Amino acid sequence: VFFFQAEDGIRDVERSRGLGDVYKRQGINAEYMGLEKFMVSISPIHGGLVFADEKSEEEKQITRKPGEKDPNVLFNPTPCTLGFEERLALVKMVGDEILVEQNLIELLKNKQQFVCYDGFEPSGRMHIAQGIFKKLNVNRMTRAGGIFTFWIADWFAMLNHKMGGDITKIQTLGKYFIEIWKACGMDLKNVKFLWASEEINKNAVTYWPRVLDIAMRNNLTRITKCCQIMGRKEQDTLFASQIFYPCMQCSDIFHLKADVCQLGLDQRKVNVLAIEYCDMIGKTPKPVIVSHHMILGLQQDPNSSEPMKMSKSNPDAAIFMEDSCEQVASKIKKAYCPPGIVKLNPILEYVKYLILPSFDEMVVERKPEHGGNSSYKNYEALEKDYVSGALHPGDLKPAVIKYVNMLLEPVRQHFKNDEYARNLLQQVDQLRIQQEQEKAKEKEKAKAKEKAEKEKEQVKEKEPVKEEKKASAQNFKFLKIYSKKKKKKKK
Hints:
Layout: E1 3-6, E2 9-12, H1 19-33, E3 40-42, E4 49-51, H2 57-60, H3 84-94, E5 97-99, H4 101-110, E6 114-120, H5 128-143, E7 146-152, H6 154-159, H7 167-183, E8 191-195, H8 196-202, H9 204-217, H10 220-224, H11 240-255, E9 260-261, H12 268-281, E10 288-291, H13 325-334, H14 346-355, E11 362-364, E12 374-376, H15 379-388, H16 393-417, H17 419-490
Parallel strand pairs: 6-7, 6-9, 7-8, 9-10
Antiparallel strand pairs: 1-2, 3-4, 5-10, 11-12
Helix pairs in contact: 1-9, 3-5, 7-17, 8-9, 9-11, 11-12, 13-16, 14-16, 16-17
């Protein structure tokens, strides 16, 4: 009665000005006429339009199940009582790069509380930088007056083909990430968790027009420059969904009304895209970009000037938040840590960014004949001893193992003693096993394909030889016949 199908979506016959307008007026009409069952939303499973009474069981399960914990139960924003200088110092501790610092100063002077955000794709296991380092940075930002929004980017993980694009698996991993942050000491009073799929569905009328506007104002070259945010390279073959991804992430900043974007340096390009978009539309004030350091992976190539970051695909390159004491010890013992060299040294980075910010001091235990125990309260003193040779990797590594295990122990205990968390970890372990099996199958397929292609090439290489032999045989036969005809003519 109310709608007919048009090229650009569902429209009503009267006063039709586009899909967004329909969403807006449809809600009013349905409420007024008692037709709530006709309310439309966008499916997080297949992306199409669904009516309220047509949602599948899988879609209904996206909302919290009975017994499932509310991630925002501890959210209770408290006013910041610190002075300007203290707040600025805290934010500077987080940012390896701040764009633009003057804008940050003005923000802190004008607002005692501000909105900051970080988005994360729930994919695979959580490594120590996502866990402990993120906790430290969030706590600094909230102490400085930030109301921190974690954007659980489930749709984004799906667009990026994580977990095979299975939204249910992705959301299980999102819940697992939240449990880790709870357990590792993140102050959740000023932290709110929002699921991208739910929020975008609720606010489709305002969210999608902005995404489209960002897409219309930027060419393909500018968007593909942002593909680093997805762990991709510009030269990679991208799916259409991955081209759309940066436009959506840029839109998130405005949707969440973020004063500060607090993400890693690997997300810098899309954050700069947001600043450029502000210039395009004349929006002020612009969001402040506070980009944190990217902690090195445990494995480094001494012959390369390019740092190797933590990688989930290489288990030895990172400590994961539920690693056992034995796994931590094994990985750190094998880690790159050349004596006296600071550059690209991941063990020193663990001390600088994870251990010393978490403990009042770090004690390196040594035998009396090796100089006895050394105590460090700041990184600069430890680095000085390391460069001079007074502190050897053989003494530093056991201390790092000890303190990293102390940081992870509350998480291990939480997943051991909390039934909900324990069940989540079991599901994540099963997903990991499935993923490893799928990767193994893909490798086998790739090997079989490569073998078939090589065999095909070998056949092709042999074919010209056969053709040459055939041609020479034909030529010989022709010459023989020709010579016979010549002899007959002479006779």
